[in-house]
């Protein structure tokens, strides 16, 4: 989180490989080959209608209007009307072709975005927890919203505009050469000037558009964080500080956006003025040639129309240049995530059922044979050392064991490593030093989905999904029957308040359970773990949001839930761990005391100080 001084915009970022990103986007479009072919044909028809329509001006002026100045001729009038009607039909056909390729291109772009979002979401489901620990939700959501929208703009408008411009410029340039090579030389000189201007101004704005997208992601991330934590902001009167931090991020966003759009916004006026200069110079030169008899009046008028047709698409492309830069920056961010390696999993041991329907570990050997080990929930840490960042150790030489049916509690100050231990048990992170064994098997040999299926976690921060109460409990076991769901709720002590809801178990939960109290949300999370019926249960401050009366009601149900299971409990409320088989006191990533409640009290060490109030957890 930035401080009041906030991040300042320094050197602008750049799209590292714009052609590579663009080529990759075209790879998505290429899947719609027939539609793309139809787009190219319709764009060609639209561009050629402009060229053919302008050619009628020479015929109308030289063959009909000029002769009519000498006197009335019905034949000339009829020919004049036919030429006008034909020119109108050509332009109408061009407009219809423009409408057609716009609609088809829209379908191509929406289909491409569908694929992009699908790949992005699929990859995020495969990424390790560490990715989400390092990126804010708002920053991630920016890729699904703002970045994909810029790509849509590129696909639906910019690409079609570039193709149309290429066809128009080539065909118009050919006609100009046919009409007058002298005037065409003037156009070539001005074209060179226009391209230099586009290259200079576009290059200046390119890097700042990338910085703008990055700054937008950070700003959205901060806004999402503040909206989620608005209660805390109010409670701790943090409004002023939050405003300062927002202003710093907003200023960085504004600075990048201002620099990007300063160059982007001056490009269009410059190109329009250069286009007018080209038109004026061509008109003067064409008039001189017409006076000297080198060109007819109709040729000059038609050529002037061609200069408009020649410069207009170049001006429009220069305007689209900004959209292309933003889209490439957004696409690069999306592809960066899609290209990230998925969560590593080299496990080979899987979860299976034996002939009696009991859960077992299926352990294959080198010969393809398999041995089966009953799933009991025996967990052993052997000299485990771990740090989230290289060089920073969170746990040091931690050794412990939890036999099936035992309740192991972890207490200690914040940052002592309690939650880290549970993160390692389910392989959210892998240990670089030491070993963790589960039923005698190194957990690195167990496939992560199978390992996690044998466990259930109840976290301090409860998350409920949009859906009914029944569906949220069933999230722990998707094939659970209604009776199993109800029994799990009773075990957790949640059945009573659920029955009092407007529609009982069919009551719809929205906005992460905003219509429930924090304690009720916690009870549903416990019920979700109960319906999973795992051999290992992890409770990370699971009863922290439940009041004392509710806690007393839940204790019996929790005891039933924990019966026969290995349970790891993290708690600041020491009264909840008194009946643990073993209590581990952690300090600075090491276990400094271990034993049951009575043993630790008799030692009169840190636990004794915590329990008697001589020392408080921080």
The rough form would be described as: elongated
Instruction: Calculate the mean pLDDT score and round it.
Output: 82
Residue ranges: pLDDT <50 for 5 or more in a row?
1-13
Report helical residue fraction.
Answer: 55-70%
* Class by SSE composition: alpha/beta
The assembly state of the depicted protein chains is: single chain
Widest beta sheet: strand line-up: 9-12-13-6-14-15
What is the number of strand segments?
15
* Major sheet: 6 strands, mixed
Distance between the termini: 22 Å
**Proportion of strand residues:** 5-15%
Radius of gyration, taken over Cα atoms and rounded to an integer in Å: 36 Å
By DSSP (H or I, 4+ residues per run), the number of helices equals 18
Description:
This protein has 618 residues and is of the alpha/beta class. Helices cover 61% and strands 12% of the residues. It has 18 helices and 15 strands. It has helices at residues 18-29, 33-68, 74-126, 129-134, 137-179, 181-228, 230-235, 239-291, 297-338, 418-425, 448-453, 469-474, 482-492, 495-499, 518-532, 548-562, 597-603, 606-612, and strands at 350-353, 359-364, 370-374, 379-386, 395-402, 407-412, 433-438, 441-442, 455-458, 467-468, 508-509, 536-540, 566-570, 582-587, 590-595. Helix 5 packs antiparallel against helix 6 (181-228). The longest helix has 53 residues, at 74-126. 36% of the residues are buried.
How are the SSEs ordered, and which strands pair?
Blueprint: H1 18-29, H2 33-68, H3 74-126, H4 129-134, H5 137-179, H6 181-228, H7 230-235, H8 239-291, H9 297-338, E1 350-353, E2 359-364, E3 370-374, E4 379-386, E5 395-402, E6 407-412, H10 418-425, E7 433-438, E8 441-442, H11 448-453, E9 455-458, E10 467-468, H12 469-474, H13 482-492, H14 495-499, E11 508-509, H15 518-532, E12 536-540, H16 548-562, E13 566-570, E14 582-587, E15 590-595, H17 597-603, H18 606-612
Parallel strand pairs: 6-13, 6-14, 9-12, 12-13
Antiparallel strand pairs: 1-2, 2-3, 4-5, 4-7, 7-8, 10-11, 14-15
Helix pairs in contact: 1-9, 2-3, 2-5, 2-9, 3-5, 3-9, 5-6, 5-9, 6-8, 6-9, 8-9, 13-15, 17-18
